[in-house]
Specification:
Length: 574
């Protein structure tokens, strides 16, 4: 007998792939049951399940002072609440997306189990999306909670009424809420067992500006699951900073130099007062940065064993720090100031460091050649620096202008007639420049070409609606800012831009410092508003590209280009 051709050489065939998430088969108590008194909840599923990181992914409302015990055994999940149940209260055990079947890992999305200790079950919800205030990236797995107490102090003194966590898309839904007025908050981590914000231990926070009322389903919603919808409430999270404490680190690097580093910007050097020496411009030189001041001492001050400085806080509080200049001193802490005092080092053998603004052998068309010195130098010792054109052996006319170029203490612009696309060589003879301590430079040679204007592109923007407070940032493909420009009513321009792919972000500069600023809960101030241009911009050499940007037309969640999402690893804010 001949076998069937249809069966020849074929083994057993499987069925369709399982794409169905697990379902609840039964539970004790039942889902949404009222008049519950048991602190033990058992949930049985129709198949074997997985429970991913219950400690971080499962939340219980109202928040529990003692952590519940959550166990998985085959098809059953058991939750044992350790806090005494409150009367007439709806409880929610929110598993988020932590439950999946054991075989195909099909996730049961947005699953929550609810019951009530009273005769009624609260069924309303407050939902929305949490975004990073500066990058507009959605923020996942972040605690979100509500307060029915509408005072500003509730967030810092009381535990949340109810909590949940954001999902992978930054969306959240605080479930089983009773009717009433609420404020909504997000907190990057549970800094204490009270689920409240501690201003003394700043973390990332977000808070709603308006008082909100819960609902069942909003007409203005985006459906993401059969049983759950999210409305358009947007929270913007930022890094909350300490408002009152000024910390200082003092470091002694060499006998002529010490540096004070602050945890916030120090706007005025006059906030530092010398107690046992005269702090005059002739006695020292100061190299200021935004949050750092470097002192270069003359030979007399360098011999003092201990320099006593007083730093005045913005709140008029005064702290003092001793800069100990001898050998073998230990770390000392005075009030909020930590001063590390290093042993003296003999750096006399080291040559004076010189850097410049040449990149890849090219000087930007729009820039002048600059020399940067990390140590104070004598202005009168520049005679042995030579500039030559191409292969010429004859020196070009050259002069130097001292400039105040952050972050270097001394920088000098080379004044010379440089032409585009031409090659030049700057030669520094040995001992051409002396610093104020008598050390000399080593011999060096710098070859460069001034770039041609035709190598650049120009980007012109028409911003609608125009706002004089706007600052536009030109971003690279890693979501990092390269340059920024203040908005102008007749067009906002980025000139001399390399050919390539770019993105745009703008912020509304509320305080006029041209720096994006996060918010302040103490001041009830939201972070400065941010908008993204929704498309990549390609710039070509010797071209001008014009773009119209109606920055508030698209909703926030549609603005940031997909290829930029999640790429930002570092953020700056004040």
């Amino acid at each position: 007998m001949l076998s069937s051709c249809a069966n020849r050489g074929m083994g057993p065939q499987g069925g369709k792939k399982d794409i169905t998430p697990p379902r609840v088969a039964r539970s004790m108590p039942a889902q949404n049951e009222t008049n519950v008194s048991s602190q033990r909840i058992e949930i049985n599923f129709d198949e074997y399940v997985l429970l991913e990181d219950a400690y971080n992914n499962v939340t219980v409302s109202p928040p529990q002072k003692r952590m519940p015990v959550i166990k998985l055994a085959g098809k059953k999940i058991t939750v044992e609440l350790k806090d005494t149940l409150q009367p007439n209260t709806t409880y929610t055990i929110d598993f988020g997306s932590a439950i999946a079947d054991n075989n195909e890992k099909n996730v049961l999305p947005n699953f929550a189990f609810a019951f009530s200790t009273g005769a009624e079950l609260d069924t309303l919800q407050i939902s929305g999306t949490l975004f990073d205030a500066q990058t507009l990236d959605p923020i996942a797995n972040t605690l979100t909670g509500i307060h029915s107490n509408l005072s500003d102090t509730a967030f810092t003194t009381l535990p949340f009424d109810r909590i949940t966590k954001t999902d992978a898309n930054g969306r959240f839904a605080v479930k089983n809420v009773k009717a009433g007025d609420y404020r909504v908050f997000a907190l990057s981590q549970n800094v204490n067992d009270g689920y409240r914000f501690d201003p003394k231990s700043p973390v990332a926070v977000a808070f709603s500006e308006n008082i909100l009322q819960p609902d069942t389903l909003s007409k203005d919603t985006a459906k993401i699951a059969d049983s759950l919808r999210f409305n358009n409430l947007i929270l913007f999270q930022y890094e909350e900073k300490k408002a009152d404490t000024l910390t200082i680190e003092a470091k002694r690097e060499r006998k002529e130099k010490f540096t004070l580093t602050f945890n916030k910007e120090l706007n005025d050097v006059s906030q530092i007062e010398a107690r046992n020496f005269e702090l005059t411009e002739s006695a020292f030189k100061v190299s200021p940065k935004r949050n750092e001041i470097t002192f270069w001492l003359d030979s007399t001050l360098a011999k003092i064993d201990t320099l006593h400085l007083v730093v005045k806080h913005l709140t008029e509080k005064i702290d003092s720090v001793h800069i100990l200049l001898g050998e073998g001193f230990n770390k000392i802490t005075i009030d909020s100031i930590s001063a590390t005092n290093l042993a003296k080092k003999d750096n006399n053998a080291k040559i004076q460091l010189i850097t410049n603004n040449i990149t890849g052998g090219k000087l930007e068309y729009y820039d002048s050649l600059k020399l940067f010195f990390d140590v104070p130098v004598k202005d009168s010792t520049f005679k042995k620096i030579h500039l030559r054109h191409g292969k010429d052996t004859v020196d070009m006319p050259i002069s130097f202008r001292k400039t105040d170029n952050y972050p270097y203490l001394n920088s000098y612009t080379v004044i010379a007639p440089l032409e585009e696309s031409e090659n030049y060589t700057l030669t520094i003879d040995s001992a051409a420049v002396f610093d104020v301590f008598g050390k000399a430079t080593d011999k060096a040679s710098i070859g460069f070409k001034r770039r041609a204007l035709s190598e650049y592109s120009t980007l012109a923007l028409d911003l609608q609606p125009f706002d004089s407070r706007i600052v536009v940032e030109l971003l690279d493909e890693k979501d990092q800012p390269l340059r920024q420009s203040k908005a102008e009513s007749d067009g906002t321009y980025f000139d001399y831009v390399e050919a390539g792919n770019y993105y745009l972000r703008l912020f509304i500069d509320e305080n006029g410092d041209e720096t994006w600023n996060g918010g302040s809960y103490a001041e009830q101030r939201q972070p400065e508003k941010v908008y993204y241009y929704p498309k990549k911009i390609t710039l070509r050499a010797n071209w001008e590209v014009r773009e119209d940007w109606s920055y508030s037309t698209l909703p926030i969640w549609q603005q940031k280009p997909q290829e930029l999402k999640g790429k930002t690893t570092t953020k700056k804010q004040n």
